[in-house]
Known about the structure:
This protein has 195 residues and is mainly alpha-helical. It has one domain. The chain contains nine helices and two strands. A hairpin with a 2-residue loop joins strand 1 and strand 2. The longest helix has 26 residues, at 10-35. The radius of gyration is 18 Å and the shape is globular.
Amino acid sequence: xxxxxxxxxxxxxxxxxxxxxxxxxxxxxxxxxxxxxxxxxxxxxxxxxxxxxxxxxxxxxxxxxxxxxxxxxxxxxxxxxxxxxxxxxxxxxxxxxxxxxxxxxxxxxxxxxxxxxxxxxxxxxxxxxxxxxxxxxxxxxxxxxxxxxxxxxxxxxxxxxxxxxxxxxxxxxxxxxxxxxxxxxxxxxxxxxxx
Length: 195
C-alpha cells in the first residue's frame, strides 16, 4: 500500500481497512480467550465500525500502521482516535480524570489492563506481519513515552507483563494473567457478597 493514502483508491483503502480491523479483532479475541476475557474478546474495538472511526480510518489507511498516526501527522490530532479512546476502556488514555482540580491518571482495573496487553500484542502482529517476534510489544512500548503519562502502577505492571511475554512467550504470560484474573474475580465476588 502507498505511503500516501491519496494514491490508493477509496475502494482499496476501504477493503484494506476492513480486513485489518477484522484481522486485528480476531487476534485480540484469541488472546483475550487465552486470558479468560470472553466477553471483552467478543466486544473488543466494536467502535471501529462506527462512522466516526471507520470513515476517517479509510481516508487515512496506509496498511502498515494505524490510520490515526497519519491523521495526527497531517492535522496535529485525530478525530477518530479521540472517539476511539473515549469509548474503549482497554486504552490507558481512557483512565484519566479530574481529581482535586487537576488531571491525573487512574490505575487500570485488571480486566481492562489485560485486554490492553492482548490489544498491544495483536496490533504488533497485524502491522509487523513476518517481522513480529515475542519481543515486539515490549520494543514498541520502550520506544514510546506512554509510561510517563500512565498511572505508575499500570506502567510498571505493563512493562513487567511485556517483559514476561518477551522472555517466556505469550502462552505462558497469558496463562499467568488468566490465573491472576481468576483470583481478582474471586476477590470482587467476595467484596460484593461479603464472604
